[in-house]
């Protein structure tokens, strides 16, 4: 049977509606990215775990693999807070730490793992990696939550609302950045030149 990729993608798209900001620090450099792959990874309420899947193309991927620590932040949809959320999303998701410092543009404090905590986030969990799965173009990380705070009483920002607020120029830049990322994923999955 031929795979119906349209059907598959209708099943899979939008499964995780909350964009998260992942930060880490490695070798004295702090960095981070946006992700739509975050999840909870424990059924034990008193021992929470978080999971996230990062693409090997991204600098944060290699940093997290090395440091073994990360902070995962939710963004706020609150009227007074959503502009700061959009600033975080556009800063971390719009360019690479390979091209310069992104974290220095955001308000932060140092977390217990050394990861930068984004003070304008809605909330965060900080994690130490306890396992990871290499899936060719990605690594899926699972971490024990070792610290957590909630800064805001507002709703958490969903990706649909965030996309509707993103400026057209930013989306254009994001789409352009996505091209080499997708090619890198195909190279990892199928071998270079076999996509
Ligand atoms: C809404 C959104 C969701 C994203 N989801 C992921 C993801 O799940 N995994 C990933 O590796 N990159 C994801 N990205 C892409 C990275 O955030 C982006 O490539 C970033 O610039 C990488 O920065 P870095 O090279 O400094 O790590 C997402 C970007 C956006 C805007």
Automatic annotation (TrEMBL):
<dbReference type="InterPro" id="IPR012349">
    <property type="entry name" value="Split_barrel_FMN-bd"/>
</dbReference>
<comment type="similarity">
    <text>Belongs to the non-flavoprotein flavin reductase family.</text>
</comment>
<keyword id="KW-0560">Oxidoreductase</keyword>
<dbReference type="InterPro" id="IPR002563">
    <property type="entry name" value="Flavin_Rdtase-like_dom"/>
</dbReference>
<dbReference type="Pfam" id="PF01613">
    <property type="entry name" value="Flavin_Reduct"/>
</dbReference>
<protein>
    <submittedName>
        <fullName>Flavin reductase family protein</fullName>
        <ecNumber>1.-.-.-</ecNumber>
    </submittedName>
</protein>
<feature type="domain" description="Flavin reductase like">
    <location>
        <begin position="15"/>
        <end position="160"/>
    </location>
</feature>
<dbReference type="GO" id="GO:0016491">
    <property type="term" value="F:oxidoreductase activity"/>
</dbReference>
<dbReference type="InterPro" id="IPR050268">
    <property type="entry name" value="NADH-dep_flavin_reductase"/>
</dbReference>
